[in-house]
């Protein structure tokens, strides 16, 4: 029981700290059937509140998801961005099982840039919401064993 309570607290603390020491795919215990969520982000204030909001959502999925975080400003983040073909100034990109494009509520959604209504004015918002991300995660976790 204590382990179930500590996991959400740990995730929120990692998000609040904004360190590049957050889990990466290389150091996580990924079990068969888990949904992989990869997030790459710019680790500075306009993005951190969005990361906190995303982390609050991810906590709800517990051990059904494995989350890897990549800070663009680290060598690991640069390698991940290159592997995913991300070359533009990107505040945030979220991949679920390797893809950031989904159909949610009958429309195409790409988990790229800020969610709708949360951009800074300098960087355009993406065409997604936290609710869209929840629906995509709900669908992915339903499909996993």
Overview of the molecule:
The chain has helices at 2-17, 48-59, 75-84, 130-143; strands spanning 35-41, 65-71, 92-96, 101-104, 107-110. The chain is built from 4 helices and 5 strands. The protein has one domain: Glutaredoxin, CATH 3.40.30.10. Helix 1 runs antiparallel to helix 2. The strands form 2 sheets. A 3-stranded mixed β-sheet has the order 2-1-3. A two-stranded antiparallel sheet has the order 4-5. Helices cover 36% and strands 19% of the residues. The chain has 145 residues and is α+β, with helices and mostly antiparallel strands. Helix 2 links the parallel strand 1 and strand 2 (65-71). The radius of gyration is 14 Å and the shape is globular. The two termini are 23 Å apart.
Short characterization:
This protein is of the alpha+beta class. The chain has one domain: Glutaredoxin (3-Layer(aba) Sandwich).
- Overall pLDDT confidence: 79
What order do the helices and strands follow?
A: HEHEHEEEH
Tally of DSSP β-strands: 5
Helix run count: 4
Q: Order of strands across the biggest sheet?
A: 2-1-3
Fraction of helical residues: 25-40%
Structural class: alpha+beta
**Straight-line N-to-C gap:** 23 Å
Low-confidence stretches: 1-27
CATH architectural category: 3-Layer(aba) Sandwich
Shape: globular
Taking the sheet with the most strands, its summary is: 3 strands, mixed
Relative strand content: 15-25%
CATH class: Alpha Beta
Radius of gyration: 14 Å
Which fold name fills CATH's third level, the topology? Glutaredoxin
Overall number of structural domains: 1
Q: Spell out the CATH superfamily.
A: Glutaredoxin
């Amino acid at each position: 029981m204590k382990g179930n309570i500590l996991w959400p607290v740990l995730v929120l603390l990692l998000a609040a700290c904004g360190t590049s020491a957050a889990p990466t795919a290389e150091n996580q215990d990924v079990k068969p059937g888990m949904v992989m969520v990869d997030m790459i982000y710019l680790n500075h204030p306009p993005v951190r509140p969005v990361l906190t909001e995303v982390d609050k959502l991810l906590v709800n999925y517990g051990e059904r998801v494995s989350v890897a975080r990549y800070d663009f400003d680290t060598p690991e983040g640069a390698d991940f961005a290159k592997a995913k073909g991300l070359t533009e100034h990107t505040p945030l990109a979220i991949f679920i099982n390797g893809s950031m494009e989904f159909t949610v509520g009958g429309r195409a959604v790409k988990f790229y840039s800020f969610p709708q209504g949360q951009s800074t004015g300098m960087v355009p918002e993406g065409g997604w919401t936290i609710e869209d991300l929840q629906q995509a995660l709900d669908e992915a976790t339903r499909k996993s064993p």
